[in-house]
Structures are given as C-alpha cells and as structure tokens.
Amino acid sequence: MTSPPELVPLRQARSAIVLAGLGYFVDIFDLLLFAVVRVASVRGVGIADGPAALEAGALLQNTQLAGMMLGGVLWGMLGDRRGRRSVLYGSIALYSLATLANATATSLPQYVLWRFVAGFGLAGELGAALTLVGELVDRHARGTATTMVATMGVLGAVAAAVVGALVSWRTAYAIGGTLGLLLLLLRIRVRDSAMFARTATAVAGRGNLLRLFATPARAWRYLRAIAIGVPVWFCTGVLVTFAPEFARALGVQGAVTAGTAVLAYYGATTLGDLTSGLLSQALHSRRRAVMAYLALTALGVAAYAAGVARTPTAFYALYAWLGFATGYWAVMVTMAVEQFGTDLRATVGTSVPTFVRATAVPMTLAFLALRDRIGMTGAAATVGGTALLLAALAVWRQSETYGTDLDFVEG
C-alpha cells in the first residue's frame, strides 16, 4: 500500500475539498431542515399550534443538539484513534438513516428519538472534513481550502429552505437522507493524511478528550475555541428558529415564515463564509477577520432587538445581515483545528463546532426563562449580548494561527 501524500497545492486537493464540501452541504441541509419544517412537522405529529408547539419545537431542537454534543465527543475521539476517514464514513451513514427515519415519525416521542440519533450522526461531519483538508493542503492555502468547503456547505441551508417550501416535511426528510447515502458512495476512495498516518503508531493517548484539560493553558485554549462560535448559534438556534414568533413580538406587519428566514439568513451566510475566509487570507490573520465579523454581528443583533424592521422584507433583510455577519464559522473551526496537535486535532475539530451548536440548549432555555419576565426582545438581547461579549474576549486572548505548521503533537 502506498503512503498518503504530504501537503499538496490547492489544485491537487480539489477532489478532497469537493467531497468535504458536499458532506458539509448534506450536514447543513439536515440540520437546518428542522428549522424550516418545524411548525408543519410538530403539527404533523399531533401537537396543536400555540405555546405547546413552541415548547415542542424547543424540545426537539435541544434533543438534537444534545445528540450532537455526545456525538461530537465520540466521533472526534474515533477520528484521532482510527482516522478521519472512519468518521467521514460512519457519521454520514448514521445521520442519513436517521434522517430517513424522521420522515416516518407519527408521535412526538418518536420524533424526539430520531432527532437525537440524527444529531449524534451530524456531529462528526464538519470537524473530520476540515481536519482532513487542513492536514492535506499547503499551509498557506489552508484557509482558502476550508473556505471553499464552508461555502459549499452553507448552500445546504439554502437547499433546505427551497425543498422545505416545495414538498411536505416527510418528503423533505426523505430527500435529505437519500442525499447522504449517495454521498457515502462517492467517498469510497477517501484516504487519511500523512500527518495522521505518522501519528497513528507513534503517539499514545490519541483522541483522549481528558488530555484537552491536562493543563490549564490547554483547557483555556479549548474553551476559547468554543466561545468564539457561540454567537453564530445564538442567531441560528434562537433568532432564526423562532422567526415567526419574533416577528409577532416585534410588531412586523405581515406574515413571516421560518423557511424564508432560513433562506435569507443562509443565503447571506454563503457570502459571509466566502468573504471572511478570503479576508483572513488577505490579512494573514484569523483573529482580525473574526473580530470584524463579530462587530457586524453585534450591530445586527442590536438592530434586531431594537425592532427597526417593521415589514417582512425589512425583517428578512436583517436575517440576511446576521447571516453574512455570522459567516465566520469556517474561520472559527479552522482556528480551532490549527490550535492543536495531530493527536488531538480531530477531537477538537469535531467537538468544538458540536459544543458551539450545543450552547443553543442553555441559550434557548435562558431565552425561554427570561421571555416571561422581560419579553422576547429583552430576553434575546440579554442572551445574545452575553454570547457576543464572551466571544470577543475569547478572540482577544486566543493566539494567531494563520500559516502555522500543523505537523506537531501536543505531547
């Protein structure tokens, strides 16, 4: 058997980048499809409209994210112990089958179960893909490669919005599961990187999550990597998911649908992912690019909470602003994987985005708890402002990783 190739120019890694991007596309399609079909699907499993429907939607989202949190740990450990390739196969197979099963749910307990399993499977895709691409591509082109993956991926949300609007919620889930199984067939020839091949036999303790907390410095490095992405999932998990309810609370004159909010948000996220990645390359700095987009996010959240949008068109325009501003997701994950050695890189690359997504659970619970006391907009401003402050502090303290050599271990 031939050895895996060393670092290669961007053009020679095209097939790996495309397969990683398609995987992220299917991942995002399934993940955001729930936000699009939430109202119809909750109604379809027997929950009447009103407060009960909102609570059922929050339960389903939090259950999915709990599955992602558990999956993010286990898939990441597997990726460092058995290879990134094993995660790319196993995760997509599991979440594809679970997404097909979502289409068969006839009760809320069944729906909750399959969202949990789907979330568990979804957790492995992005981190393993970006880790593999980062370890394959020349270090000065690494940001461009991961930007390409992310830009392809977020188009999955646009596809989810379109599909969710055109077909029934059950058919939409069936389409998502089928897309995942088709991608599984395309990945037959994917191989692990040379960096991992060397580490696989030379380093003990690969993928041990506890090693991330072995020293205070390493633990804080890991926690900062998570905190940087929290505002993204405040916007996604709270503002986008509950768009119709926010529209009513803010006095928007006209009907607002979650599907159109997802389309506006993620259509702009595609551009945000592309421009933030290119900006980080142009500035030779991940940190400065992320800080610029955090500032844009803060402005968008402030305008949203202030109720400046009074028509559906203006409301959707705010979602587009927020989508563009939170398009630093790929740069955030790239920063995370660049912070750690090859023996823990997949664990970090998979668990960081998963734990970021999982922060939507406490943020949603905090939002719901504050809603009755200070209203929906006050609750959103409080939770969102806290998330943005923590992210800014984390970026300020995190070290720069642009162009760093990834061929090292934590020791």
Task: Briefly characterize the structure.
By secondary structure, this protein is mostly helical. It contains 16 helices and no strands. Helix content is 77%, strand content 0%.
The helix fraction, in percent, is over 70%
Q: Specify the CATH homologous superfamily.
A: MFS general substrate transporter like domains
Cα-to-Cα separation, first versus last residue: 29 Å
CATH class: Mainly Alpha
Shape: globular
Overall average residue pLDDT: 85
The description of the largest β-sheet is: none
**Helix-strand string:** HHHHHHHHHHHHHHHH
Structural Rg: 20 Å
Structural domain count:
1
* Low-confidence segments: 1-5
CATH architecture call: Up-down Bundle
The CATH topology is Growth Hormone, Chain: A
Structural class of the helix and strand makeup?
Answer: mainly alpha
Beta strands, count: 0
Count of helical regions? 16
Oligomer: single chain
| Share of residues in strands | under 5%
Salient structural properties:
411 residues; mainly alpha; Growth Hormone, Chain: A; 16 helices; 77% helix; globular; disordered N terminus
Report on this model:
The chain is mainly alpha-helical and 411 residues long. It has one domain: Growth Hormone, Chain: A (Up-down Bundle), CATH 1.20.1250.20. Helix content is 77%, strand content 0%. Helix 9 (216-240) packs antiparallel against helix 14 and helix 12 packs antiparallel against helix 13. The longest helix has 38 residues, at 360-397. The chain is globular and about 60 Å long.
Secondary structure elements and pairings:
Layout: H1 14-44, H2 51-82, H3 84-102, H4 108-122, H5 125-136, H6 142-166, H7 169-186, H8 194-202, H9 216-240, H10 243-249, H11 258-283, H12 286-305, H13 312-325, H14 329-338, H15 345-358, H16 360-397
Helix pairs in contact: 1-2, 1-4, 1-5, 1-6, 1-7, 1-11, 2-3, 2-4, 2-15, 2-16, 3-4, 3-5, 3-7, 5-6, 5-14, 5-15, 6-11, 6-14, 9-14, 9-15, 9-16, 11-12, 11-13, 12-13, 12-14, 12-16, 14-15
